[in-house]
């Protein structure tokens, strides 16, 4: 949703922007390309993503500053760089195609790999710890609350019985065997289990909550916040946080209805089909 992101950010050539989810650098490159005297700060918690994006953004020189940080620390990053306020912040949540495609990182059930799923490989908690050590009850609760998995109890029981779970392939087949009726579903039977594990390993909901509460204070008046989310729980959190800030008088919501990708985009990029964009402006 590159065009939509640029449109809603309403980029000024002399503005200061933060892309808190640099990933492969696609959005950052497009933003930097619209700046003259402006500046872009790009964050990611994944050191590998930063390395690749650094190469891609090299030609923008001092216009772009790359920082390894979780986005919950946006206020600290801005403060350390000596920037008083910014004109726009973009968050494109979740994992990148790059992370999904690097089988060894364990985000995908399509190939057998270590049960890792950490975006920042220096973090302690891994998917292996959850799958092989958490209690059946804790796993069931995680699957139900984070991914709305209705077979959570059956899956948790099957996981605990199959221990030790060796890798992502073993996990995917264990989950598939525990599901009741999944034959007619579009999604792989382990999709929700993998999503819940990834969310827990990376404390994604805590990160998002802190980001949404702290960002309005970092924006100049008229500065915009654009958030792209990919599943309904995440989108609900964004929607409610924006509404709460609107009640408090710090943000005005600009997208009364969520913005979704065009049919053309979903046809060429199937991964974009669940994307939801919301935008709010600092009052
Ligand atoms: C969907 S991708 C972003 C893709 C990017 N917009 C592009 O154009 O290539 C999400 C990225 O956000 C990073 N990320 C996710 N949660 C994060 C967090 N809490 N703090 C910092 N980075 C995070 C991931 O490591 C991943 O690289």
- The total of helices stands at 13
From the spread of the alpha carbons, the general shape counts as: globular
What order do the SSEs take from the amino end to the carboxyl end, as H and E? HEHEHEHEHHHHHHHEHEHE
Terminal-residue CA separation: 25 Å
Distinct compounds present: S-adenosylmethionine
Determine and state the CATH class of the largest domain.
Answer: Alpha Beta
Give the overall average pLDDT.
95
- The SS-based structural class is alpha/beta
What is the correct CATH architecture of the largest domain? 3-Layer(aba) Sandwich
| Biggest sheet statistics | 7 strands, mixed
Strand proportion, as a percent range, falls in: 15-25%
> Which blocks of ≥5 consecutive residues have pLDDT under 50?
none
Helical residues, percent: 40-55%
The number of domains is: 2
Break the fold down into its secondary structure elements and pairings.
Blueprint: H1 2-9, E1 16-19, H2 26-32, E2 39-44, H3 47-56, E3 64-68, H4 74-80, E4 86-92, H5 97-101, H6 127-133, H7 136-147, H8 152-162, H9 168-178, H10 191-201, H11 204-214, E5 219-229, H12 232-248, E6 251-253, H13 263-268, E7 276-282
Parallel strand pairs: 1-2, 1-4, 2-3, 4-5
Antiparallel strand pairs: 5-7, 6-7
This protein binds S-adenosylmethionine.
Description of the molecule:
- It is a single chain.
- This protein has 283 residues and is of the alpha/beta class.
- It folds into 2 domains: 2-98 and 204-282, Vaccinia Virus protein VP39 (Rossmann fold), CATH 3.40.50.150; 124-201, DNA polymerase, domain 1 (Orthogonal Bundle), CATH 1.10.150.170.
- The protein is built from 13 helices and 7 strands.
- It has helices at residues 2-9, 26-32, 47-56, 74-80, 97-101, 127-133, 136-147, 152-162, 168-178, 191-201, 204-214, 232-248, 263-268; strands at 16-19, 39-44, 64-68, 86-92, 219-229, 251-253, 276-282.
- It has a 7-stranded mixed beta sheet, with helices on both faces.
- Helix 7 (136-147) packs across helix 10 and helix 11 runs parallel beside helix 12.
- The chain starts with a helix and ends with a strand.
- The relative contact order is 0.13.
- The model has no long low-confidence stretch (mean pLDDT 95).
- The structure holds S-adenosylmethionine.
- S-adenosylmethionine binds at residues 20-21, 23-27, 43-46, 49, 70-71, 92, 94-96, 119, 207.
């Amino acid at each position: 949703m590159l065009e939509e992101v640029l449109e809603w950010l309403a980029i000024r050539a002399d503005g200061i922007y933060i892309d808190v989810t640099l990933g492969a650098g696609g959005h950052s490159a497009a933003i930097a390309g619209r700046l003259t005297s402006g500046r872009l700060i790009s964050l990611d918690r994944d050191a590998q993503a930063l390395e690749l994006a650094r190469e891609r953004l090299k030609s923008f020189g001092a216009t772009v500053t790359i920082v390894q940080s979780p986005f919950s620390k946006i206020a600290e990053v801005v403060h350390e760089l000596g920037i008083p306020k910014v004109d726009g912040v973009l968050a494109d949540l979740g994992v990148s195609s790059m992370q999904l495609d690097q089988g060894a990182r364990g985000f995908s059930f399509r190939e057998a790999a270590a049960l890792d799923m950490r975006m920042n490989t220096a973090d302690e908690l891994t998917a292996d710890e959850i799958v092989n050590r958490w209690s059946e009850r804790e796993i069931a609760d995680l699957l139900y609350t984070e991914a709305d998995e209705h077979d959570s109890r059956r899956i948790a029981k099957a996981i605990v019985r199959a221990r030790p779970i060796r890798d992502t392939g073993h996990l995917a087949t264990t989950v598939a065997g525990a599901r009741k009726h999944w034959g007619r579903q579009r999604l792989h039977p382990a999709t929700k289990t993998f999503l819940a594990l990834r969310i827990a390993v990376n404390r994604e909901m805590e990160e998002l909550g802190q980001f949404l509460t702290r960002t309005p204070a970092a924006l100049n008046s008229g500065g915009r916040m654009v958030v792209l989310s990919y599943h309904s729980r995440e989108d609900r959190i964004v929607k409610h946080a924006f509404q709460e800030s609107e009640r408090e008088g710090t943000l005005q919501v600009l997208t009364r209805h969520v913005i979704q990708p065009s049919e053309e985009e979903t046809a060429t990029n199937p991964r974009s089909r669940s994307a939801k964009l919301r935008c709010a402006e600092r009052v």
